[in-house]
Amino acid sequence: MIESKPLKRAPALIQFSKDHHFSLLLAWKIRQGMRLGISAQRIADYINFFFETYLNDHFKEEEELLFTGLDEHDDLRLSAEQDHRDLHAMNEEIKLQPGESLLTKFADRLEQHIRFEERFLFAHLQSSLQEHQLNSILEKMEALHPAQKEDDWKDTFWTRKNGL
Fold this sequence. Notes:
Layout: H1 11-35, H2 40-66, H3 75-96, H4 100-128, H5 131-144, H6 160-163
């Protein structure tokens, strides 16, 4: 049996992975809120807040700092860019008419996208980008994120205490 060691994440990608963890928590919170019977509108309000406060910037940073290092016809780049468009479109649908099915679909799609980037796209970027490109990305990310963002949403519907 061949053992595969996990790929060590390049320092330039670490902040992106931290953002991904934060977004995986969003998917968990959506599912947890639904398990607790929280209204779709309450959950949708949080999704919109999260999208406007965190995901828009995250997607923009990926597209401008990471994806531009790949050929514009690169299959993994194209897939990630399509994911971003799909998630934006889903968020717009949620704003207009939130429903349990759409919330579940959004949480699943967000998680699928993050897993794709973490397992495939980031490994591809690490092998495709040159050291000076990775160093430039790291410098830009450190300037953009001097401290970890905190989620300051007051309605913690995903907790049993606040969900009911």
